[in-house]
Structure formats: structure tokens, C-alpha cells
């Protein structure tokens, strides 16, 4: 790989040094709080927890596949056993992990939409009362099913031991980038539509917004901040799809080298969104850093459905 194109990967490494430990601490704190409060066992936090786990796995996987393939000794192992799906997983995992994130952000946004805009809908009650194992199963099964088309490609190889660049047919690149562009576009469309409807609902019933609803709204803002990162990914795949369609191999490899920037944005923004926009969790997180116990009185207890919004001039 051209040394001039290694700076995005090196930047990804530098940010990973302090972000992965921070993310792990956020994850541990979330798991700890689930033992003390019903708030953190709700559907939203169960999905968020899976999203955090996915992000950490994705970061470690990217470092192990894309980063270590250039390290002497390790790259010899990768090259020698490349027939065992190693280069194929290196390439295919980019799309598989993208679809995991897409479904995750869609699930989080739909959950916020249902809780805020349709709190008394039957579907909302079903989602809020869904058991943890079902939520986890849906979170991981849906993107896996979407990724079957991608994961079946096993003919991807390394070009040489010295360069270790992936050799992928133009047909696979064109199909995968177009599929990724469509998936990211649909993700953004669903999420934006959910937030537009939420905004309209809040405008209509602004007089009935209670503190409990405000907390639910802050969680929606947290998810919206995460959604903003997807617009960077949308732009990335828009350009990648254009270059793959023009039969120009150079820009395709350049965009592949720039992938750590887009991937890092999606990976690293979530823990900061959680800490900066979730005040209840941030207080508990700081107590955890100080090795203090969880203050149960500060942990807000959430019910199956959120507190109400004004409907027809009264609070229901």
C-alpha cells in the first residue's frame, strides 16, 4: 500500500488507543447499571448495549484484518493461509459490519419514534415489553441475513506478500458498493423520517412535555447525533459507487484507503454521544471511575411506556 495513503489507518490507530478503553468502560458501566435499575434493562438500552458491543468488535476486527495484514510475520501467516477465507473476510467484513450498524441505528431510531410519537400504540407496547433475548436475536440476525450475498464471496485474494493489497473483481466491488449505498440511504431515510415525525409530534403537544418525556427526548438526541455520522458514510459510499461504475481502479483503492476515517467516525462517536448527552448515565459513569457504588436513588426507573404528552388539551 502506498505510504501516502497510510495516514488514515495510522490516525485510526491513534484514536483507538484511548477510545477503545473508554468504550469498554462505558460498556462495563452499562452492564453494571442493568443490575440496579429497570431503566437500563429497557428495549432502548438493550439495543444500545448490542450496538456498543458491535462497535468494539468492529474496531478490533478492523485492526486485526486491515491493520495487521501489513505487519511482518503476521502478514506472512495471512498470505500463506489466504485460501482459508482470510482476505475474503477482510473485505467482506467491511460490509457485514456496516449492515450491523445500519440495522442498529434503525432499531434505535424506530424505538425513539414509537416511545415519543406513539406511546399508546399496541406495537410500542410489544416492542417495550419484548424479552432481552429476542431483542438480541433480532439485532444480530437481521444484518446477517442482509449480508449473505456479501459473505458468500470467497474468491478474494492478496496480490503479493510485499503489498498485501486485496484483489477483488470489479463485479463484486460494483455490486457491494451499490448495495451498501442503497442500505445506508434507506437507513438515513427511515431515521430522518422518524425524527421529523417526532419533531412534529413534540411541536403539537409541547405543553404536555414532562421531565420523563424530556429524558426520553434526550435519548433521541443521543441517537440523532449517532445518525449524523451515517451521512459521512453515505457520502463515502456515494463516491465509492461512482468510482466503481467508472471502471477507474485508482480512486477505488484511494477510497478504500480512506475507509478508516468513515469507519472511525461511526465507531468512536457513540461513547462520546452517550457520555455528553445522557446525563443520568454520565453521573453513574463518573461514580464508577471513582470506584464508588451505584447510587440507586439517582437511577431513573422507566416503565414499559413513557410518561404522557398532551392529547386534545389534557394530559393522558
UniProtKB/TrEMBL annotation:
It is found in: Membrane. Its main location: membrane. One of its GO terms (cellular component) is membrane. The chain crosses the membrane at residues 6-31, 43-64, 98-120, 132-151, 178-197, 217-237, 257-277. Gene3D superfamilies: Rhodopsin 7-helix transmembrane proteins (1.20.1070.10). SUPFAM superfamilies: Family A G protein-coupled receptor-like. InterPro entries: 7TM_GPCR_serpentine_rcpt_Srv, GPCR_Rhodpsn_7TM, Neuropeptide-GPCR. Keywords: Membrane, Receptor, Transmembrane, Transmembrane helix. Residues 22-274 form the G-protein coupled receptors family 1 profile domain. This is G-protein coupled receptors family 1 profile domain-containing protein. It comes from Caenorhabditis elegans.
Amino acid at each position: 500500500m502506498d505510504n501516502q495513503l497510510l495516514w488514515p489507518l495510522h490516525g485510526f490507530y491513534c484514536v483507538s488507543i484511548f477510545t477503545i478503553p473508554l468504550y469498554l468502560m462505558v460498556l462495563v458501566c452499562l452492564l453494571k447499571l442493568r443490575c440496579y435499575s429497570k431503566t437500563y434493562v429497557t428495549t432502548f438500552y438493550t439495543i444500545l448495549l448490542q450496538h456498543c458491543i458491535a462497535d468494539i468488535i468492529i474496531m478490533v476486527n478492523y485492526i486485526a484484518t486491515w491493520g495487521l495484514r501489513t505487519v511482518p510475520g503476521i502478514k506472512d501467516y495471512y498470505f500463506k493461509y489466504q485460501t482459508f477465507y482470510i482476505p475474503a473476510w477482510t473485505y467482506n467484513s467491511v460490509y457485514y459490519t456496516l449492515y450491523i450498524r445500519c440495522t442498529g441505528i434503525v432499531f434505535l431510531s424506530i424505538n425513539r419514534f414509537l416511545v415519543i410519537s406513539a406511546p399508546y400504540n399496541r406495537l410500542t407496547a410489544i416492542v417495550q415489553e419484548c424479552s432481552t433475548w429476542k431483542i438480541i436475536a433480532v439485532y444480530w440476525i437481521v444484518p446477517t441475513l442482509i449480508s449473505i450475498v456479501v459473505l458468500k464471496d470467497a474468491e478474494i485474494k492478496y496480490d503479493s506478500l510485499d503489498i498485501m493489497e486485496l484483489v477483488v473483481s470489479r463485479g463484486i466491488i460494483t455490486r457491494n458498493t451499490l448495495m451498501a449505498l442503497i442500505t445506508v440511504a434507506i437507513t438515513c431515510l427511515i431515521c430522518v423520517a422518524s425524527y421529523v415525525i417526532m419533531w412534529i409530534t413534540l411541536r403539537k403537544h409541547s405543553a404536555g412535555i414532562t421531565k420523563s418525556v424530556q429524558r426520553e427526548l434526550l435519548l433521541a438526541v443521543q441517537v440523532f447525533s449517532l445518525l449524523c455520522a451515517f451521512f459521512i458514510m453515505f457520502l463515502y459510499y456515494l463516491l465509492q459507487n461512482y468510482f466503481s461504475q467508472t471502471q477507474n481502479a485508482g480512486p477505488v483503492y484511494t477510497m478504500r484507503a480512506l475507509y478508516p476515517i468513515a469507519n472511525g467516525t461511526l465507531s468512536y462517536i457513540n461513547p462520546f454521544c452517550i457520555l455528553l448527552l445522557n446525563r443520568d448515565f454520565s453521573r453513574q459513569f463518573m461514580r464508577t471511575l471513582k470506584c464508588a457504588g451505584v447510587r440507586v436513588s439517582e437511577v431513573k426507573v422507566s416503565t414499559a411506556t413513557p410518561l404522557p404528552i398532551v392529547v386534545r388539551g389534557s394530559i393522558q
